[in-house]
Structure formats: structure tokens, C-alpha cells
């Protein structure tokens, strides 16, 4: 539905997790076998307390601290280099998302926090899933057919209540072209604005005629 796609729709629910006392050789093995770049560390209740990434493990294996400026704390960097467990190596505090967040909100949070994934937690703070940059990109890169259906069914039908044959919709490479007529001039920018709000739309090309008191307007 328009404007309603959320993190819960695209997140992975079966999440690979570590405990603070998970040995690093197990961390490396699980990241490799599951082909993932990072995973959350959870406490006894299942609440995320940190994240361990493949880059963390690689830096540890080369006995080097984080690059200068990465965390701004040399003692912390060398402490990580001496780590033997997920809890000692993890990045903390952990930044999380909620399942009811919109896709744009989650994308902004990823960008603001400079991370590639966010553990998703419920009202109780316990882990319910994980959302990655790839998940969000997949949600945005929709097919032309999916976009056309949403414009026709949600924008023109459910929201504006226009008759089925009033406006024709074409979508090519994410560009929506609408042709036809609407009952009032004020609806022209409304149609354009709503179409622009559909996830995956690149641009809107409107060729609409509006009638006011029986007088057509371009």
C-alpha cells in the first residue's frame, strides 16, 4: 500500500547471532558459512548489545587496531586486537531499528550511523530481525509492473476514487507517464505528488486535462 512499506516487510527474521562469550574462531566460521558481513551480539534475554563484523575479525587476525580515527580511542583499538570473544571485539553501543519504520527512515538511519545493517527490535528491546542496505535497495528497485499496479490501484483508485478508464498509466524504467483527465484542476498536482511518493518511482510525466465548470484546462 502507498507510503506503508516498512522495515518489517523487508527485514530478515532468521538472524545469525553471537553471544558475548562466543569464541572468535566460531564468529569467523559462522560469518563465512552464512555469507554475511556482520551479525549482532545478544545477551541472555535476546537483546542486542553489539555487532561484530567480518572487518573486525580481519583486523583482529592481523593484530592491528582500527584505522586511525575509526573510533578515536587507541586503548580501545588495542584492546580489540587482543580480543578472544565476540563480546570483546564487538562494536557497542548497537544502533537498532523498529519493524514499523518506513524504508526511507531506515535508510536515513543507516546513513547517519555509517553502518551497513541495523538489528530490528520490538517494544521489549529483544531482537526480531535485521535489515541491511541490500534489503532497502531491493525494496526501492521495484519492477515497472509493480509500480503501475500501485499507481492504478492505490493512487488513482483507492485514494482518489477515479474511474478505471479516466487516466491511463504507463511505466518505463521507473518513469510514470499518466494521460487522461481528472474532474478538477486541483487534482493534477495531487496525482503527480502521489505518484512521486510511490516507492521506486524515478519521475512523473503528466499529461492530464482538468475540467472546472465545464472548461478544460491543460
Automatic annotation (TrEMBL):
Gene3D superfamilies: CBS-domain (3.10.580.10). Keywords: CBS domain. Residues 143-212 form the BON domain. Pfam families: BON, CBS. The keyword Isomerase does not apply. Residues 11-68, 90-146 form the CBS domain. It comes from the Bacteria. Residues 59-79 are annotated as: Disordered. The keyword Isomerase does not apply. PANTHER family: CBS DOMAIN-CONTAINING PROTEIN CBSX3, MITOCHONDRIAL, OS02G0818000 PROTEIN. This is CBS domain-containing protein. It comes from Streptomyces chilikensis.
Amino acid at each position: 500500500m502507498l507510503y506503508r512499506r516498512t522495515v518489517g516487510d523487508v527485514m530478515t527474521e532468521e538472524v545469525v547471532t553471537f553471544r558475548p562469550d562466543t569464541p572468535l574462531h566460531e564468529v569467523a566460521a559462522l560469518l563465512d558459512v552464512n555469507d554475511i558481513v556482520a551479525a549482532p551480539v545478544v545477551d541472555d534475554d535476546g537483546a542486542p548489545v553489539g555487532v561484530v563484523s567480518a572487518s573486525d575479525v580481519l583486523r583482529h587476525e592481523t593484530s592491528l587496531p582500527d584505522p586511525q580515527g575509526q573510533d578515536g580511542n587507541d586503548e580501545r583499538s588495542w584492546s580489540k586486537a587482543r580480543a578472544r570473544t565476540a563480546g570483546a571485539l564487538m562494536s557497542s553501543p548497537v544502533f537498532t531499528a523498529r519493524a514499523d519504520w518506513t524504508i526511507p527512515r531506515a535508510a536515513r538511519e543507516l546513513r547517519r550511523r555509517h553502518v551497513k545493517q541495523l538489528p530490528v527490535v520490538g517494544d521489549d528491546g529483544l531482537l526480531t530481525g535485521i535489515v541491511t542496505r541490500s534489503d532497502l535497495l531491493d525494496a526501492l528497485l521495484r519492477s515497472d509492473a509493480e509500480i503501475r499496479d500501485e499507481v492504478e490501484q492505490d493512487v488513482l483508485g483507492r485514494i482518489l476514487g477515479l474511474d478505471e478508464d479516466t487516466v491511463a498509466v504507463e511505466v518505463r524504467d521507473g518513469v510514470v507517464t499518466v494521460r487522461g483527465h481528472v474532474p478538477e484542476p486541483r487534482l493534477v498536482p495531487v496525482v503527480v505528488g502521489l505518484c512521486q511518493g510511490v516507492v521506486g518511482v524515478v519521475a512523473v510525466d503528466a499529461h492530464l486535462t482538468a475540467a472546472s465548470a465545464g472548461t478544460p484546462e491543460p
